[in-house]
Amino acid sequence: MHRKPWMTTLLLAALCCGNAWATQPDDAATLTVRGFGTLGVARSSSDQAEFARDFSQPKGIKGGQWSGRIDSVLGVQANWQATPQLELVGQVVSRYRYDESRVPEVMWAFAKWEPDARLALRAGRIGADFMMLADSRLVGYSSLTVRPSTDFFGPLFFSHFDGADASLTVPLGNGLARGKVFGGTISEKTPLAVEIWDTSGASTRGLVFDYLTGPWQLRASTAYVEYSNDIQFARQLAITLRASGAAAAAADALKVAGTTTRYDSLGVAYDAGPLQVQAMLNSIRHEAGLLHNSHAGYLLAGYRLGALMPYAGVSWWKSRLKSPALPNTASADLNREYDQVMGVSVADQTTYTLGARWSLCRNTAIKLQWDAIRGSASSRLPLPHSQPGWNGRTDVISAVVDFIF
Amino acid sequence: MTLRYILLSLFLMLLAPHAAADLVVVANPKSGIERLSQDEVINIYLGRYRRLASGITAEPVDLPGDAEQKLRFYRRLVGKTLAEINAYWARLVFSGRTRPPQIAENAEAALDFVAARPGALAYVERTQVDKRVRIVFELGE
C-alpha cells in the first residue's frame, strides 16, 4: 500500500481553510450543505472478544491488530431553510453497519416547523435524543471523546425513528426549561449473536426534560420501545422447547415480540470556560425474560490547556440477572443451549478512559484515547463474539482525526 | 501649548487600545428591549432560546471565520475558544436542532443588519456604535 502524505496534508489544509458554516443574513430561502467525518484506527488487546463501538456493528476489533473499521465515518447533511419558520433537513451517513458494508444510510429526513422561538415541531426521520448534548452519536468532531461511552450508549440499538417530536422551551427561574415528547417507529437492524435482528416495526415513545441554567444542564428522560419481531434464534429454540415438553415459562421467556423495554436516564453537565464535566445514569428494564435488566452510568471530565484538552472518564454497565425459568427437558444439550441463549445479554464491565483532544484548527481535531475495560468473564455485551477463556479484560487504543466541512 | 498637545496625544494613544477592546452587544431601537443580561445573550447566541422579553424573535448575527472580535466575544461571554464554539454548533447542527447565528461579512454589515431588523443583535466595538442601534449589553474589556 502506497502512503500518500501529501493527500493527507491537502485534505487537512482544505478542512482547516473551509468556511462552509457561513450563512448570509437575509430572508431568502437558503440551501446549506455541510458534512462531518472521522478517519480513525483502533486496536483492542484481547483476542478472545471483539471491541465494537455499539450494537450496530456486527464485528469489532481484536487481537492487537490496528483497524479503521469501527470509528471511521463520513456524513453529509443538507438544510433547506424554506422560510424563517420552516426548514427541511436530510442527512446521509456511511459507516460500518449491521451487514458489514458501508452503504450510505438516511439518518435524518425531516421537516421542522418553528412557529415561534419557544416551540419546535419535527416530523419525518428524526434522531433519537439519548445523548445530553446531541442527537447524533457519529459526529466525532462535536464530542470530547473518540466515541460515546460504549457501556452507556452501546445498548441503545437504534439511532433514529420515523415519527415526530415536539419541544417547548420556556424561561423558568434563572434558567430555561425544555420539554420534549416524541414517538414513532423504528426501522433498523442490529446484529445480535449469530443473526441480524430486524427491529423494523418496533415503536418508540418518550419524554425528555432539560433544565439549563448558567453553565449547568440537568436532564431526565424516559423512553419506551415495543418490539414487533422476535429474535429468530430464540424463537427457534422456543419452538424446540415446546415440542420437547419443556416448561412453558422457559419458552415464554424467549419471546420478544409484543414486549417492551423502558429506558430511564438522569444526566448533568457542567461546561464553563476550560472545564467540561458530564455524568449520566440509566436504567433499562425489559419485559422479555431473555433480555436482562441493567443499569449503566458514566462520568467524564475534560480541561482545556491551550489547544489541548486532556480528559478522563469512567463508565460501567451491569446487568441485574432475572431468575431463569428452568426448561427441565430430558436433553442436556437443549438445557445447555437454553442457558447459553439466556446469557447472551449479560453485561458486567467497567471502562476507565484517558485521552486528549487536540484542536488542530477550527474544523479539525485529533484525538488519542486509551480505554481499559475491566469486566467479569460472564459479560457478553457489549463485546461481541466472546470465546471460551474470555476474562472480561481488554485495552483499547484509538487515534482519530475528526473533521467537519 | 506643545506640552498640552503631547499630553493629549499620549492620553488618546493610551485610550485607543482600551476603547478598541471594549465590546458591546447592540439591538435595534424597535426591539422593545433596553438591556439584556449575560444569560440572555448566552441563550440567544448559543441557540438555546431566541425570544426577546418584548416577544420578538431574536436574530443574532456573528462575524465570519476567526475574526479577532469574534474570538474576544466568545472568550468573554462563555470563556470558550472558537474551536469549542465550532464543536458546540456541530453538535446542534448535525442533530437538526437549531441554527447557528447568521454571518455578516464584517462589523459594518452586522450594524446594517441590526439597523434594518427589529429582532437583530450584533456585537461590535463600542467605537463602532452609531445612532441606528442601541447598546443592550456590555462585555467590557
Description:
With 405 residues, chain A is mainly β. In chain A, 11% of the residues lie in helices and 48% in strands. Chain A starts with a helix and ends with a strand. Chain B is of the alpha/beta class. Chain B is 43% helix and 17% strand. A five-stranded mixed β-sheet of chain B has the order 3-2-4-1-5, sandwiched between helices. In chain B, 40% of the residues are buried. The interface between A and B is large, with 53 and 41 residues.
The CATH architecture name of chain B reads 3-Layer(aba) Sandwich
Q: Report the CATH superfamily of chain A.
A: Porin
| Mean pLDDT level of chain A | 89
Percentage of helical residues of chain A?
Answer: 10-25%
The assigned structural class of chain B equals alpha/beta
How many extended strands of chain A? 18
Radius of gyration of chain B, whole Å: 17 Å
From the N-terminal CA to the C-terminal CA of chain A, the straight-line distance is: 27 Å
Which tags fit this structure?
heterodimer, A: 405 residues, mainly beta, Porin, 16-stranded antiparallel beta barrel, two-stranded antiparallel sheet, 18 strands, disordered N terminus, B: 141 residues, alpha/beta, D-Maltodextrin-Binding Protein, domain 2, five-stranded mixed sheet, 5 strands
